Amino acid sequence: MFIGGPNFTEPTLLFETQELQIEAPNWSLDGKTLYLNGNGLLWALDVSTPEAGLRPVRYDGLPELNNDHVLDPDGDHIFLSANDGHIYRAALTGGAVERVSPEDGKWHFLHGVSPDGKRLAYVELKEFGDPGKLAVWPVTGGEVTRPDIGARHIDGPEWSPDGEWIYFNTEGFTTKSGHAQLARINDTTGSIERLATSETVDWFPHLSPDNCFAAYISFPPGTLGHPGNLNVDVVVVSLDDWATPMQRYPLFGGQGTINVNSWSPDSTRFAFVAYPID
């Protein structure tokens, strides 16, 4: 696992392990801990003492996890996507879990929590192989809202820190199969904006807490989906200029590298994972 940021010309290695494949770090709101998944479980890593290794966060009755999990803005809980297709809310200390996704016969892959913690933005699938749809759901229950952003696949929906926009990647700007590009939709008006035009396949835009920067993963042209075994780039941009990267970190990875927001609370750095080939 590496640390990068707007002022990191080269990423810094924070932690490595050969015991399990770690994925998708989240940075705690107090800046002290990184939470990530591996082998179907959630793990914690102390940022100041990474040499101490991973600590399992143990939950009661939680199905095997995937790599879509997002911190609750209260700083004490986390929302977790599991391989049964549902989303759960749980304390960062472990223990009991609560299912919070609707029982609607669909798969729910979480990517965003509204700044007030009241709504979830997730990718909804009826069947694997179907195009993913953006869905918004109140944490306490209610009606699912499905903003109209076309019939093509979308992924990675995540609110801006001010709650005004939901950022995501979509194949809706082109007829090329798999050619994901970065976009955003206004949470109030539903207006959609394309953020950049690229020959690469770009996924998972993650905004810094100060609403100044973004990090995302860039796959080679022609990539279908977001596989985990390619030479890719993690890219850092200013929100004022998506066309001109501030930093670009080449690595071997993809799926699991930076699926969810991993910015530090002070917006100076973020965490991501690579899978080096020996």
TrEMBL record:
Ranges annotated as spanning the membrane: none
InterPro entries, sorted: 6-blade_b-propeller_TolB-like, WD40
Superkingdom field: Bacteria
Listed SUPFAM superfamilies: DPP6 N-terminal domain-like
Signal sequence range: none
Family that this chain belongs to: Belongs to the TolB family.
Name assigned to this protein: Biopolymer transporter Tol
Protein source organism: Arthrobacter nitrophenolicus
